[in-house]
Amino acid sequence: LVSWIKMEFGGDKLLVPSLDRFITSLGYIEGNVAWISGKANNIKSAATFGELSLLFQRMKSRIE
């Protein structure tokens, strides 16, 4: 489990579990997959690691 977001079957599609690959080219093999919520999967697919890191740093600096 990678996501902090609650997951549940049925209902809201953002909460439905999704099997995610760490390295896409390796496929769905043991050690390369994790269950994440639909919401976490959307976040992951909509931004690069650099964009997420920058967003985190900016948000962190505003609350410190």
Any key phrases for this structure?
64 residues; alpha+beta; two-stranded antiparallel ribbon; 16% strand
Walk me through the structure.
The structure is a single chain. With 64 residues, this protein is α+β, with helices and mostly antiparallel strands. Helices cover 38% and strands 16% of the residues. It is built from two helices and two strands, in the order E-E-H-H. The chain has a two-stranded antiparallel sheet with strand order 1-2. The longest helix has 15 residues, at 49-63. The N and C termini lie far apart (29 Å). The mean pLDDT is 82.
> Which term fits the overall shape?
flat
Mean pLDDT comes to: 82
Q: Regions with pLDDT < 50 over 5+ consecutive residues? A: none
End-to-end CA span = 29 Å
Amount of helix: 25-40%
How many strands, what sense, and barrel or not for the largest sheet?
2 strands, antiparallel
Given the structure, what is the number of helices?
2
Beta-strand proportion: 15-25%
Number of strands: 2
- Helix/strand order, N-terminal first: EEHH
Using only CA atoms, what is the Rg? 14 Å
Q: Order of strands across the biggest sheet?
A: 1-2
User: Which structural category do the helix and sheet elements fall into?
Assistant: alpha+beta
